[in-house]
Write a structure and sequence with these properties.
This protein is α+β, with helices and mostly antiparallel strands. The protein has three domains: 46 residues, Uridine Diphospho-n-acetylenolpyruvylglucosamine Reductase, domain 2; 111 residues, Uridine Diphospho-n-acetylenolpyruvylglucosamine Reductase, domain 3, CATH 3.30.465; 110 residues, Enolase-like, domain 1, CATH 3.30.390.50. It has eleven helices and 13 strands. The strands form four sheets. A five-stranded antiparallel β-sheet has the order 4-5-10-6-7. Strand 2, helix 2 and strand 3 form a beta-alpha-beta unit. It is globular.
Length: 298
Amino acid sequence: MHNPTPGLPEFDYIKPASLAEASQFLAQHSGEARPFMGGTDTFVRMRDGFWKEKYLVDVKNLDGMSQINFDPATGLTIGASVNMNRVVASPEVKEYYPVLAEAAHTVASYQLRTRATIAGNICNASPAGDTIGACLVLDGSLQVHGMDGVRQEPLSTFFRGPGKTVLKPGDIATAVLFPIPPRHYAARYIKLGRNAIGDLAIVGVTALGYPDSSAPSGYRFRLALASVAPVPFRPTQAETILTQQSITATTIAEAAQAAMDACTPIDDVRGSARYRKLMVRNLTQKAVSEVWGAISRR
């Protein structure tokens, strides 16, 4: 009898002593080795035959990977192996970056979130990644240890396609970095799934807004859309409308239409392209209205 979900293929488990050793091994075995932290995506993809790596390189306990640090001057650092339940529970995240906790809380189940990581969500590069929108509007970047040392990759240019990023052989994500957010900002993540929580997003909309006297409207907005294009992205035309024109219900509706026009969704088992486009418009209108309601009262 055919088993629709076969077990994991055979692989060698590698536990390097340092990031330098891990990068070297990954670079030497390019195409047949993969770093892993929580393994929530890795093991599923290997079981289903999409990934056929011979080596899994365990990097989760290397330098600083399991720490959350907040500095009032520079911002937040979330180590790459910090699980999502720790992010949701972090007092600093809840106080300064609540939309990140809100987005992380929508990922899968509590049990899975004890393994899943923000960095893994980013590196997996799924167009439907729940926490990626929050990371984009919070101006996040990825700290990467590679063969040439440590560098930062802005998330705005990180994604190249479904499952594809700018990471090179030997690269290991070590932390996600967030600057101090804008003063008096508000943000919201709205996810449309087939059930209330835990499902993959059919559409994900993140909106962040804050007062800015240099903007014609007096405010600036950052928006991010997930599950409606090959990569998660910011619809810049919609953001421009909200920056340039007085914020009214009409302006918000115009921006929501621009967000819808920026999408290139596909039909799949979870929803048609047309349905997704319409829901981008509706959810963008809702998210921006809620953010506007919060920041205009301050």
